[in-house]
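Batch job 17 of 40 flagged for manual review because the log was empty.
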Amino acid sequence: MSLWLTAIILGIVEGLTEFLPVSSTGHLILATELLGYDAARWAVFNIAIQPGAILAIVVLYRRLFREMIVGFFRRDPVAIAFVRNLLLAFLPAVVLGLAFGDYIEALLENAVVVAWALVIGGFAILLVERFAKPVDSGGVAALTTRQSIIVGLVQCIAMIPGVSRSGATIMGAMALGIDRKTAAEFSFFLALPTLTGATVLQLAKHHESITRNDLGLIALGAFVSFIVAWAVIKAFLAVVTRYGFGPFAWYRIIVGAAALVWLALR
């Protein structure tokens, strides 16, 4: 298969799964395995195309971000609380990411870990959906310092590939009583510093192994992921508002179980 076609396929997978509670990293690793490529060879590419999906959030919520940035410099309490909550939730990922980065990177090559994480995460989502009692939280800026820190800590579980960063943050928020829409949007906004930091770190660490042709592949994958993520985010909020996260949980369980069978038989 052409490398350019592979970049497009992986870009589609990234865009489809980055903001859904199904694990984009896990799907990219499984897709790489299915395509017959070396997971270590494509691990950096899979992280490097994330800015495309991040840009989709920036574009879709540009008015909100503009209001928060302007309000922050004008010392508006709502804008200050918004920025504070994002920073508090982001800090645990910085600390643990730097401390355990090498170990986490090794897991990115293990498809079996991904498959088990998909299954276990699916059942975890079903449990949260069953027992959580979310109420209208008033948006990200209205969350408490405690809620923001706990969501940030829960996000760190997603350093295990297959867990899902968005799934962990959304379920963590709902377990704290935060409503579905606010939980999903907090996960979206938290992706900006988290994914940007992970991308910069990986590119800085592996820049010597990235060729000029790789840059072209990364640019293509990022562009495709932007287009797909832009469409997915809008549909995602409509689906979870009406049906909840149950469909995504069962999807994880089915895909994870199928992957375990395939990995055992191949």
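Reviewer: the log was empty due to a logging misconfiguration, but the result itself is present. Residues 212-243 form the longest helix (32 residues). Unflagging and moving on to job 18.
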